[in-house]
Amino acid sequence: MEIKQNYNLIKLNTFGISVNAKFFVELNSEKDLAELFSLPEFKDNKKIFLGGGSNVLFTKDFDGIVVLNKLKGMEITKEDAENVLIKAMGGELWHDLVIYAVNKGYWGIENLSLIPGTVGAAPMQNIGAYGAELKDTLFNVEAFEIETGEKKTFTKEECELDYRDSIFKNKAKGKYFISAVTLKLSIMPKPNISYKILSEYLEKTRRTATLKNISDAVAEIRKSKLPDPKIIGNAGSFFKNVFIGETKLRELQKNYPNILHFEEEGIIKIPAGWLIEQCEWKGKRVGNVGVHDKQALVLINYGGATGAEIIELANKIITSVKEKFGLELMPEVNIV
Ligand code: EPU
Questions:
Q1: Is 250 known to be catalytic?
Q2: Count of H-run helices and E-run strands, the chain
Q3: Which of 57, 148, 192, 309 is deepest in the core (most CB within 10 A)?
């Protein structure tokens, strides 16, 4: 295990922001972890664990140690007539796990196709898309407590998963290193095409809701709306969607009778992308940064941007939405 100094992170965050970390180390096995925890560079410094770097915005050089999770492996740990348990190590790419499951005929994560990032990062913010979220299939999470080096298994309930949220972003923030995730997938077909955009797309392309077709359709929709971070720097949705109650909706409808909203389990979702579009930010460019022209939730680094420029744009958007609708946008991305 080699600890590097003054290490540039531009290739390790999908926003493509150029900052340096005081220390950097790649973690390739759980064995390395025990060694790492005892090193002064680790013990005496601030730390960040990175997976795919697809949900982080660096605003300045990081005065601490960045640990890149490269733990690999996927295996079926249990199987019965109805379900399988699949354990995947944290450094695996999330989409590779989806492909593995789809190829084997296991249902449950096909709607989460092509989400960037790693398996270990998935529970952090309970990744979700197209009517599914990690919470629907998560079985447990293995994590090492940083202070003691002890391995702990969190049941799904203990992960306190919520919309783009978990215990690892709140109470347990910075306290654990997620090493592996186990999912419970279904051998029985369980197509979930509740998300209107997905069902309409399948219909339009005349495809039935098979496992492979759903996965392909989600991948195609994502590719058409979301910029490829290999080509253009971004971290997917920069903001969370906004959830309000009936009273607030009725109040808003007085001024905005056509306000886009979706009812989900008794609460009302206002798509943040719609709000941003109404404030005329969609497709706008300001210097090196901008708002994606096909999905206003996505902020873009056209090249050479600093994290501070992205933050400045984000703040302007937050202010516009607040002034027009009285609603507060919250960043979804982790700002470091
Ligand atoms: N919309 C607009 N204008 C826009 C963008 C969206 O009017 O610029 C409208 C769409 O027409 C649609 C609604 O808003 O009626 C919802 O749009 P979309 O299906 O694209 O989803 P979203 O709510 O904007 C969320 C997730 C995405 C995920 C999609 C699909 C969050 C913060 N984002 O976006 O996740 O892919 O649903 O399920 O919840 C991510 O987290 O990085 C991410 C990309």
A1: no
A2: 8, 20
A3: 57
